[in-house]
Amino acid sequence: MKNLSRACLGMLIAVSALPATAHAQEEESGDGITITGSATVVSDYRFRGFSQSNEEAAIQGGFTIGHDSGLYVGTWGSSIGFNNGTEIDVFAGFAKEVSSGLTADVGATLYLYPGSSNTSVIEPYASLTGAIGPAAVKGGIAWAPGGQDSLGDASAVYLYSDVGVQIPDTPVKLKAHLGYAKSDSFLGGLDGEVVDYSVGVDFTWKVLTLGVAYVNTDAPKFGGYKESVGADGAVVFSLGAAF
Prior knowledge:
Elements lengths: L1 H8 L17 E2 L4 E10 L3 E2 L2 E2 L6 E10 L3 E9 L6 E14 L2 E11 L8 E12 L2 E10 L11 E11 L5 E12 L9 E13 L2 E10 L7 H4 L5 E9 L1
Antiparallel strand pairs: 1-2, 2-5, 2-15, 3-4, 5-6, 6-7, 7-8, 8-9, 9-10, 10-11, 11-12, 12-13, 13-14, 14-15
């Protein structure tokens, strides 16, 4: 039962809540195309507050190809503790500045678990990113429609907000995240609603970023459920390299 719960909750999905990685470097090709990428090791792959790696270390990496028009496509992967041990995400979208300092982003992500049947999930998303004083603020929504084999007839929605503050003249960035998931499927947890949150700090040096964050959820503790699915509070460390 413990492993089954992890397998289900492990499919909680979203690009925006992926673990901290080094700020990806950009390589211009001369024709308006930019390639960015990163590789990261984390002490625990926490996604929307739930451990995807049985609260053990995970290796992650990905890259994105973007165009000056705002179109982009990319992929990201991680080792996980269920579904044959691998998650691969493929995403595409369009991001554009809609007013001074405000950027809109719309797209979709396909979550794949190679070697496992009826586990893939597709999730459209939309977000707005801007600045409030010294803080970079992002708010978004991700929606997984019903009718998918992995979800049955139930749909799932995830609302979130991310805040980051770069301390001037230092390599230090403070960050915070708040998310809310609602679904009649396993994505909503035991009672159909889950709140997750985290606070942390990143230290960047050249292409490397060291991150530390406290992650937790309001998942119920009944019968040891919260601990059994890796939704209890934990400090997560990450070390990423941009390329």
